[in-house]
What we know:
The chain is built from no helices and eleven strands. The protein is mostly beta strands.
Amino acid sequence: QVQLVESGGGLVQFGGSLRLSCAATGGLFTAATMSWYRQAPEKQRELVATITPDGVTNYADSAKGRFIISRDNAQNMVYLQMNNLKPEDTAVYYCQYRRKLIYRWAEHWGPGTQVTVSS
């Protein structure tokens, strides 16, 4: 069973930086596409950034130029470096593991880590 645990969230001032980490256990990390999502209060969960097993990245427009997603396949870790943070980045950030199986997709989520940006 895949388990994901996020860490690195906290309170930061406008313009500050945070680095989120997600530790994965179980599954086949090297074959999984890993993503960061976030959910602000009373809003839908939204995709922030994705990294494929080969390291190809994709970002939401709100994250482009400020956030960097990376992965360490040897350590089963995925990271989200967040720079120039804004109050609108305040949300719970979730790590997602997604891998194509024979007949379905395997999808797993972490419990999330809170990021709060003060103005």
